[in-house]
Amino acid sequence: MKLVLFLIPALLSLHLNAQKMPYKGFPSLVWPKLYNVQYEKGTDASGEFDRPLFPDNVKTMEGKVITLPGYIVPFENGLKSDHFMLSSLPLNACFFCGVGGPETVIEILSKEPVKYNDKPVHVKGVLRLNDTDPDKLIYILEQAEVIGEVSF
User: Maximum distance among all alpha carbons in the chain?
Assistant: First the structure.
């Protein structure tokens, strides 16, 4: 009985500590670099916005083909689109649910319409950095294609 009384608080402590650790997304060499962005106040004709300041290791990826794992997040209703977001976090923990920031998602402009899938996928395309248009995401992947589901 004493062993059970000891184990319950110990297991509860482990469980609570595990919940405090932030979700980092999929293992990827690229996402951690994209996460490392700072912001400054910028202005345009519509007013003030947070302008991203990309570090040098991200600037060197501009215009290059990269591959990212993530979850498809549709911009519009529908099961197929050539314009959607890819989130490094599952939908219940994505940028719009308050866990991640704008650096955890990338705007996808694919070569062909992609069918929505709730399973994680790998997407390949040309990276563009956006620090001027607050109506678009800060990262854009052009000429993109889904190259397959993520396998664990």
Answer: 70
Distances (CA, A) of 26 to 5, 49, 58, 65: 37, 29, 18, 19
Scanning the structure block, which residue is given the tokens 């705007």? 107
Among 128, 27, 17, smallest CA distance to 69 is for 27
Taking only the tens place, the pLDDT of each residue in 72-115 is 988 877 789 999 999 988 865 555 555 678 899 999 999 999 99
On whether the CB atoms of residues 125 and 145 are closer than 8 A, the answer is yes
Nearest to 108 by CA among 134, 82, 89, 130: 82
Cα four-point dihedral sign 71, 55, 49, 140:
negative
Q: What token pair was written down for 54? A: 């990309």
The pTM (predicted TM-score) of the whole model is: 0.77
